[in-house]
Design goal:
The complex is a heterodimer of chains A (435) and B (509). Chain A has 16 helices and no strands. Chain A has one domain: MFS general substrate transporter like domains (Growth Hormone, Chain: A, Up-down Bundle), CATH 1.20.1250.20. Chain B has 509 residues and is of the alpha+beta class. Among the domains of chain B are: 131 residues, no CATH class; 63 residues; 124 residues, Heat Shock Protein 90 (2-Layer Sandwich). Chain B has a five-stranded mixed β-sheet. The longest helix of chain B has 88 residues. Chain B is elongated, with a radius of gyration of 43 Å. Classes of the chains: A mainly alpha (435), B alpha+beta (509).
Chain lengths: 435, 509
């Protein structure tokens, strides 16, 4: 190391903030090009004469493509460590959004949107890689939470933006504008992102922060080939599987409310489209706070242990989903607050599970493991599409909510054995931190 | 910074959960005020009790804010209900005050139950009087909410705390509040009950009571207070599901009564079982200790016996080798003196030396025989016993003596052989000296792992209790130390039955 300690400090401080900003903006833009269609959907449905089954199919195909792509691109991103990866992905989604606006047949719509799902998968893994390499264990909750806000910023901005755009210029505008933004930001992002600290000539973050837990993970992550990493630290890791299964459920809840929430509000409570979309923005706002508090709380209350925080949040999630289900009156304020609460409680676990997964696998496999979890996540998301539509056809909205409530109860139950057996044993068997 | 953050987090978490609980309660009660009294009570009381007092303002503030908002939205209509959180401060403060004095889970759970009861009485007394619902309704609502949620939150709190501690200390802590098996059984019961409900509900509504109470009892029995608490929560969930599906428990009072009864049953039973388990574990610990004590005591006595034997042997050898030889020398000397002609005085002296030595010799032999029966070194036990009997010369005294030796094999243990021999010697000695008997029987048999020695006579017997001087007492102690039994019967003579374990090392104490 030919750089002085002061220089290292300065570089680290600069890049950590800088990279976080770029990632937040970039990932929010991904959301813009991903969700653009959802909020124009109620209008599209009428204009193009689509059925609920069609919408469900669109969603399911998109999420399957997205989930699969996340895994593949996770492996690719970890192997090459390419800096341009995220930017190019964003650019492509922008182009596809514009293309989508000019499609009229159902087949074309499905094809373009599935392709969009594929390129959407290029966003997550580079972010996970950067987040695990630039920030250390006992503070990562907070930084990851900050980054996670981009999901919610994107998620909150999109419905408002597309609601306004669709209302004033028709639903095509709601796709064209995000598409253009995606292209511009994609090019910008290619120039902004960097590789790992080592590639910048800096020591690892564990050394810089003197974080024993982080150093331990670095020690437990010797250089291995990608197939070995995949087999040993991911596929044969019980913790990752448990996290994956609970991720399915969390995503099921999240995507179900995100995609069906406005329709439910409109159908069942007679809320108009703009208010319904505004409510979904509240959902995202709640999520923003939830992710921040969850990440930061787990750093602070449980010293970087993620599982206890997930447990707390899943209890809250169970309560709030039940409350929304049983919401007794057509009281808009109360419904909006319920959506806000669910957002708060669903994004906490959603973020923490991803975070925990990177921390319980190989350090160089951050992108891969998040991609792997992405498979689960978008399995959940796909379940929220067409299968949930079937449930609704048979049992109506109460069936829908019964499924969600059951799922939220299972999240907590699934995590408990992991807390008891998986994580604590793993932590115990390793050398204890000496601070 | 840290404190502000935590306070904010708590306020957020608390108010969101509170609101959700309120919504659920509203669904159950269809009444804004009663809803505030039902489930939110439990959450508030538990957090107020478990968290440090510096978070109270945040909780109170968020609850006030929600209360005001609900009032402005006409979801609740009584101002007096806003007093409710302030009232909960009283039981919470009381429990916090005595909290440290009680360290066991179930004791603290009882404290919490006390707080729940106190809180519901307060809620009934103050806001209850001004509410439109009957007093009993208010009391029951806040009691139900408290008893459902407070123990559950306590369980989660303890669990998280212990997880945290475990990570901090990097060691396993025994008896974790939640075990995987507990969770699995709970979920299983719940799923089963819901399935049964779904298939049977409209026809057999009364079956529900069994479906709810049975898991409570079983879980409490199997897992103590943890099982009771979890089963109570799941039971209430199930009741709610039933109400949703089949429309049972339409009367609110009935519902609340049922909810709190099943929760009380589960938790109460759980506490009782936990207490019992604790007592049992104490008892077990003491039992083990006692067993240990007994074992060491036995070992000690046994070693004492062995040491005694060894010392005897040593002394006997000394006497034999040293004194015996010396005395022989003196005798030879005396003979030499006797043979030299020096007159009658020398002659007398020499004669006296001779006599004295004779006497010492005699005594020493006597002593030797007592210390360590030389016969045992020379012959087997049965022969030695016959020899012993022969020494007493019973036939000359017109005593009918019979020795019945019926052991299949000679005992291997030295200590055992000596003890047996000495027993017979001592007993026959007693009979010979004191009993004036005309018939004596000695029977030696083996029953499974025990050697049984039975010595009986038709003599005059002796007064109980046995006096020290008899030497019986010493033998009795020796027998007991070796793990044997000693029984004395006096009926037309005396009968002494001694049982000794054949294998001294392996017998249980």
């Amino acid at each position: 190391m030919n750089v002085t300690a002061a220089q290292v400090d300065k570089d680290y401080r600069y890049w950590r903030v800088h990279l976080l900003m770029s990632m937040v903006i970039g990932y929010a833009a991904f959301y813009l090009t991903r969700k653009s269609v959802n909020f124009a959907m109620p209008v599209m449905q009428l204009e193009l004469g689509l059925t609920k089954g069609d919408i469900g199919l669109l969603g399911t195909l998109f999420y399957l493509a997205y989930g699969g792509s996340k895994f593949v691109s996770g492996i690719f991103s970890d192997r090459t460590g390419a800096r341009w990866f995220m930017g190019v992905g964003l650019l492509m989604t922008g182009v596809l959004n514009i293309a989508f606006a000019f499609c009229h047949s159902l087949t074309a719509l499905l094809l373009v949107w599935t392709l969009n799902g594929f390129f959407q998968g290029w966003g997550w893994p580079p972010c996970a890689r950067l987040l695990t390499h630039w920030y250390s264990r006992n503070e990562r909750g907070f930084w990851w939470g900050c980054w996670n806000t981009s999901i919610n910023i994107g998620g909150a901005a999109v419905p408002l933006l597309s609601g306004i755009l669709a209302a004033t210029w028709g639903w095509q505008a709601a796709l064209l504008v995000p598409g253009a933004i995606g292209i511009v930001l994609g090019i910008w992002l290619c120039r902004q992102l960097r590789g790992t600290p080592q590639e910048q000539g800096l020591p690892t973050v564990g050394e810089w922060r003197r974080d024993p837990l982080e150093l331990r993970q670095e020690q437990q992550s010797p250089p291995m080939s990608m197939t070995q990493i995949l087999r040993k630290t991911i596929l044969q890791n019980r913790t990752i599987w448990l996290l994956g299964v609970s991720y399915v459920l969390v995503y099921l809840i999240r995507i179900a409310l995100n995609d069906w929430g406005n329709i439910w509000l409109a159908e069942n409570h007679g809320v108009n489209l703009l208010s319904a979309n505004a409510t979904l923005s509240l959902f995202e706002l709640g999520g923003l706070l939830g992710a921040l508090f969850a990440g930061w709380g787990s750093d602070l209350l449980f010293r970087g242990q993620r599982a206890p925080m997930i447990l707390l949040f899943s209890l809250g999630l169970f309560l709030t989903v039940t409350a929304l289900w049983l919401a007794p009156v057509h009281h808009f304020g109360l419904l909006a607050l319920s959506f806000f609460s669910i957002g708060f409680f669903v994004f906490g676990p959603q973020m923490l599970i991803g975070l925990a997964a990177t921390e319980y696998s190989h350090k160089d496999a951050a992108g891969t493991v998040t991609g792997f979890l992405g498979l689960f996540a978008y399995l959940g998301a796909a379940l929220a599409g067409w299968p949930l539509a079937i449930v609704m056809q048979h049992y109506g909205w109460s069936g829908f909510f019964a499924v969600l409530t059951l799922a939220s109860a299972c999240v907590g139950l699934l995590l408990m054995p992991m807390m008891m057996a998986g994580i604590s044993k793993r932590e115990l068997s390793a050398t204890p931190p000496d601070n | 910074m840290r404190k502000i953050g935590l306070t904010l987090f708590l306020a957020m978490f608390y108010s969101l959960c509170w609101l959700a609980l309120w919504s659920i309660s509203f669904y159950l009660t269809q009444n804004g005020q009663q809803a505030m009294l039902l489930l939110p009570q439990g959450l508030r009381l538990a957090l107020m009790t478990l968290l440090s007092r510096r978070y109270w303002p945040a909780m109170l503030a968020s609850e006030m804010a929600i209360g005001l908002w609900l009032h402005s939205e006409q979801l609740q209509t009584h101002w007096v209900i806003l007093l409710s959180p302030w009232l909960s401060l009283i039981p919470a403060a009381w429990v916090q005050h005595v909290w440290r004095r009680f360290t066991l889970y179930w004791q603290r759970l009882l404290l919490l139950l006390g707080a729940v009861a106190g809180n519901s009485l307060l809620q009934m007394a103050v806001p209850g009087l001004w509410l439109s619902s009957p007093l009993s309704q208010t009391l029951l609502a806040s009691f139900t909410g408290g008893i459902l949620l407070t123990p559950f939150i306590y369980l989660i709190y303890e669990y998280l705390k212990q997880q945290h501690l475990q990570n901090l200390l990097a060691q396993e802590i025994p008896d974790p509040p939640l075990r995987t098996s507990l969770l699995i059984w709970c979920s299983l019961f719940f799923a089963l009950a819901v399935c049964l409900q779904m298939s049977l509900a409209p026809e057999v509504e009364r079956l529900l009571i069994i479906l709810v109470f049975l898991p409570n009892v079983v879980m409490a029995y199997a897992f103590g207070w943890q099982g009771g608490v979890l089963a109570a929560v799941l039971g209430s969930l199930m009741i709610t599901v039933t109400r949703q599906m089949s429309g049972a428990f339409h009367d609110l009072l009935e519902l609340e009564l049922f909810l709190s009864t099943q929760a009380l049953l589960g938790i109460g039973l759980g506490i009782a079982i936990s207490r019992q388990q604790q007592l049992a574990s104490h008892l077990n610990r003491y039992r083990l200790q006692l067993e240990q004590e007994l074992h060491t005591r036995r070992q000690l006595t046994e070693r004492l016996v062995h040491t005694e034997e060894a010392v005897r042997k040593e002394i006997a050898r000394e006497l034999h080798d040293e004194i015996g030889q010396n005395i022989t020398a003196i005798q030879i000397q005396a003979m030499l003196v006797d043979r030299t002609p020096h007159g009658p005085a020398t002659h007398v002296a020499a004669k006296q030396i001779g006599e004295l030595s004779q006497r010492i010799h005699h005594t020493t032999r006597q002593l030797l025989r007592q210390l360590r029966p030389p016969v045992l070194d020379e012959m087997a036990l049965d022969k030695a016993l016959h020899h012993l009997a022969g020494e007493f010369a019973f036939a000359q005294q017109n005593i009918d003596f019979q020795l019945d030796y019926r052991l299949p094999a000679v005992p291997t243990d030295d200590t055992l052989i000596f003890t047996l021999y000495r027993l017979v010697q001592e007993l026959l000695n007693n009979i010979n000296k004191h009993a004036s008997a005309t018939r004596v029987r000695v029977v030696l048999t083996q029953q499974q792992q025990m050697l049984v020695l039975e010595v009986s006579d038709n003599g005059i017997g002796f007064n109980q209790p046995v006096k020290e001087g008899f030497g019986l007492r010493g033998i009795e102690e020796r027998v007991r130390a070796l793990g044997g039994e000693w029984r004395l019967e006096q009926h037309q003579g005396t009968r002494i039955i001694v049982k000794l374990p054949t294998d001294l090392q392996r017998t249980p104490p």
